[in-house]
Amino acid sequence: MTIKDITTYLEGFAPLAYQESYDNAGLIVGDASTEVKGVLVTLDSTEEVIDEAIAKGCNLVVAHHPIIFKGLKKLTGKNYIERTIIKAIKNDVAIYATHTNLDSVVGGVNFKIAEKLKLEKVKILAPKSEVLMKLIVFVPVYNTKEVLNALHAAGAGVIGNYSHASFRSEGTGAFRPNEKANPTIGAANVDEEVHENRVEVIFPAYLKNQVLAAMHRTHIYEEVAHDIIMLENQNTEVGSGIIGELSEPISETDFLAYLKQNMGVSVIRHTRLLNKPIRRVAVCGGSGGFLLGDAIGQAADVFITADYKYHEFFDADKRIIIADIGHYESEQYTKELLKDYICKKFTNFAVHLSETPTNPINYYY
Ligand SMILES: [Zn+2]
Question: Of the candidates 302, 340, 310, 269, which has an alpha carbon nearest to the alpha carbon of residue 125?
């Protein structure tokens, strides 16, 4: 197994195309063709984590947070980022990060938090739009099945829990080849009419090249008439945060105690209690303040996230309770999520959960 085998598998779950523009997810250090000896899963890839990987015989660190966000112009070891990279390279340890792309998919970071809180009816809080495309292609009726099979194999036609979804309507395609054409049907300078299907499928925009390649490979025409359209539709399977429900409403103080217990946190910073029961819970692991409007808009009773600043707490404005449980704390179970996912497929090398504490924030109480 190579690093590429693992990263391709991880990207099947959390495609790199779903990372935010400021992000730097993907293989950060290392050669993708290297054989994997062992994997260490961590939230942050610090120097100590690289030491741990070396000690445990792991040559791949799979992290949630990318160690490099911005371009490095020099590598002299003047700060912890450069020292981590130098140590990783010197010791043949590769570093891979799956960050905001893992935040954005069903089953990702926030779904793990929902699982810890035993939330039900969990869905994405702010689904992304403009991540879906539609292909409309005109295919001779007898060629339709072959083209559709190839489109589906390339990932087209998935809507939620449904695959192989398409629509087709029959009609007449008309054309006149010129003398330079090499038509599958018809002859030069003769008007031709063919019984065709108009086939429509949707697909995630990042699969565009492979979907079009599948179409061209199987369509029997020299020139394939087709339209590609970017859709404004939301993709409910991709986006930020989640919202779900407790099996039954509980009081605010009971909920805070439950949150503290289930997320293993020592302290919760929260806005004023509103003296009403908690049922609907919005969650965004890490810095999720930008989702407050979505959480209020979807009638969440509480919004669990991290990295809130003093003035931002006022935005709760008696409409919701903001509960800041800490960035590290909110995402700490991401390691479990990644380990379980890797172990589901690969059994020929060890996958370790990092034991190095990487939370830079300590509490004195
Ligand atoms: Zn984070």
Answer: 302
Ligand 1 center to 327 CA (angstroms): 6
- What is the distance in A from the centroid of ligand 1 to the CA of 41? 14
pLDDT of 25: 98
Q: What are phi and psi of 311, to 5 degrees?
A: -65, -30
**C-alpha of residue 109 to centroid of ligand 1, in Å:** 9
Separation of 79 CA from ligand 1 center, angstroms? 20
Q: What is the pTM of this model?
A: 0.90
Cα 285 to averaged position of ligand 1 atoms, centre (Å):
7
Q: How many A from CA of 360 to the centre of ligand 1?
A: 12
- Residue 307 C-alpha to ligand 1 middle, in angstroms? 10
**CB 60, CB 94: distance < 8 Å:** yes
Q: What is the pLDDT of residue 34?
A: 98
User: Residue 348: its pLDDT value, please?
Assistant: 85
Residue 186 CA to ligand 1 center (angstroms) comes to: 60
How far, rounded to the nearest angstrom, does the alpha carbon of residue 119 sit from its chain's CA centroid?
20
Distance CA 278, CA 300 (A): 8
What pLDDT does residue 365 have? 85
Protein residues near ligand 1, an ion, with CB under 5 A: 286, 331
pLDDT for the residue 45: 97
Q: Which residues of the chain have pLDDT under 50?
A: none
State in Å: Cα 18 to ligand 1 middle: 15
Q: Which two tokens stand for residue 336?
A: 């479990």
Hey, what are 316's tokens?
């709760």
Quick one: pLDDT at residue 323?
98
For residue 218, what pLDDT is reported? 98
Could you tell me the two tokens for 92? 């043949």
Cα–Cα distances in angstroms (integers) from residue 92 to residues 30, 57, 95, in the given order: 7, 11, 10
Calculate how far, in angstroms, residue 99's C-alpha sits from the geometric centre of ligand 1.
Answer: 7
Beta-carbon-side half-sphere exposure of residue 178 (alpha carbons within 13 Å): 2
